[in-house]
DNA sequence: CCACATTAATGAGTGTAATCATATTTCCAT
DNA sequence: ATGGAAATATGATTACACTCATTAATGTGG
């Protein structure tokens, strides 16, 4: 079953849009980049862009979602982490995500906060993009469940995953501002917070 | 020094805009309310609105900032809280804020997340609105400093205030979704988190 | 190869936030 | 009071994200 010309062309157009966006967003930022400019650079009509991405925000979020998926795949392939404790595990995951997000530093912050929002009161987002983020939350949930099963931490429920997601947001905002070499400040903070949190959970802070 | 006609009129116009916005935002939500509709209801020209508020978001955030100021004043006037421990103190503050935000529940979430952002990479916000939020962070910092001085908690630095701000954001997103009567779920969560955090800090979790 | 169905591309059109040159109002010094 | 300066209001205009009716390209069954 080889892909027909239609599928091929479609993929090519999508890649052209993404390539154009990835040249403009980092250079001019999310807000100063117009969809018109992206279309032009991708050599397509203005309307075509919206056949591929519902909104300009969705286009920017595509990169985030790709990297979130990438992190999940990477983690699955990285058996070494299966034996790591929960703090190491989460540290590795978040650090890896930050590394992957580096090319998007200049614009991803503008839309990241909204991606997190689980309620329509927060933004006029498509359900689809919420679904995609939910996948990542379920992934985190899985990791926490394993740690629970090993007796590493007490049961933290769905709320645990939600909390980690929020923590990740906090780390990301710190990372965006971090001027230190190699973002070492953020990494130190990340390490410290995770160690504290697991220490806290192990010592019965949660079951109280 | 009585205010001249100019100042009076200006204040009247501002109030008219706020009144109109407060009728439309809760009814239709932030996104479905047009600045044109607000102007019309306030009996002013479309452009006049932007003499008073830089952007539509700024207009919505005005209500938040008023309430943040209100919370600070309220806290200052409430001597009872000076002797309360840090958990009670923060609980009272955040609960009070949530109560005050109730009238804006339908639209404040749409802009709240952005107000928090301390970096221009996150949003095209005016510096002014960042300043206003900084005032609140300094207020939180003050409260934490008092608790530090009393030996209630170890020194948590500016980061402590930042963390509380982020925590408040987390609580707010929970609150927006909370369908329980009187938002009691959120209040229970708030109580639990604060008690855990102070317990944690007191037991040397931070100084590690 | 051809009709015709399905899918994708197009760009003029729309709605709306925000701007800006101009007009109007208020203030104040004489 | 009056003229001119400063502040404020105005709404036509702009810029932009996004829509949609139409056109073009591709796939398919006979």
For the structure shown, list the relevant keywords:
homodimer, DNA-binding, mainly alpha
Biggest protein-protein interface? A-B, 32 and 33 residues
Note the total helix count of chain A.
Answer: 9
Oligomer: homodimer
Order of helices and strands of chain A: HHHHHHHHH
Number of beta-strand segments of chain A: 0
Span from first to last CA of chain A? 58 Å
Helix content of chain A: over 70%
Largest sheet of chain A, in brief, is: none
Strand content of chain A: under 5%
Q: Using only CA atoms, what is the Rg of chain A?
A: 19 Å
Shape descriptor of chain A reads elongated
* Helix-strand makeup class of chain A: mainly alpha
Low-confidence stretches of chain A: none
Q: Could you walk me through the main structural features you see in this protein, from its secondary elements to its overall organization?
A:
The structure is a homodimer of 208-residue chains. Chain A has 208 residues and is mostly helical. Chain A is 71% helix and 0% strand. The first copy, chain A, contains nine helices and no strands. In chain A, helix 4 packs across helix 5 (86-101), helix 4 (56-77) packs parallel to helix 7 (127-149) and helix 7 packs across helix 8. The longest helix of chain A has 24 residues, at 5-28. The first copy, chain A, is elongated, with a radius of gyration of 19 Å. The N and C termini of chain A lie far apart (58 Å). The A-B interface holds A 29, 31, 105-107, 109-110, 113-114, 117-119, 121-124, 163, 166, 169-170, 173, 176-177, 192, 195-196, 199-200, 203, 205-206, 208 and B 29, 31, 105-107, 109-110, 112-114, 117-119, 121-124, 163, 166, 169-170, 173, 176-177, 192, 195-196, 199-200, 203, 205-206, 208. The structure holds a DNA duplex (30 and 30 nucleotides).
């Amino acid at each position: 079953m080889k892909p027909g010309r239609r599928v091929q062309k479609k993929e090519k157009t999508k890649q052209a849009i993404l390539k154009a966006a990835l040249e403009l967003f980092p250079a001019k930022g999310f807000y100063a980049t117009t969809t018109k400019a992206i279309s032009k650079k991708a050599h397509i009509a203005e309307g075509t862009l919206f056949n591929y991405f519902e909104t300009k925000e969705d286009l920017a979020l595509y990169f985030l979602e790709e990297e979130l998926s990438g992190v999940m795949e990477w983690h699955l392939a990285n058996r070494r982490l299966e034996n790591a404790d929960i703090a190491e595990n989460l540290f590795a995951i978040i650090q890896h995500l930050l590394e992957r997000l580096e090319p998007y530093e200049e614009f991803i912050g503008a839309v990241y906060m909204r991606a997190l929002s689980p309620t329509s009161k927060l933004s006029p987002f498509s359900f689809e993009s919420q679904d995609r983020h939910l996948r990542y939350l379920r992934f985190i949930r899985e990791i926490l469940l394993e740690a629970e099963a090993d007796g590493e931490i007490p049961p933290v429920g769905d709320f645990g995953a939600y909390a980690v997601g929020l923590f990740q947001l906090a780390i990301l905002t710190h990372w965006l501002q971090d001027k230190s070499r190699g973002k070492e400040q953020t990494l130190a903070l990340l390490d410290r917070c995770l160690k504290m949190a697991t220490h806290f959970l192990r010592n019965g802070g949660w079951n109280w």
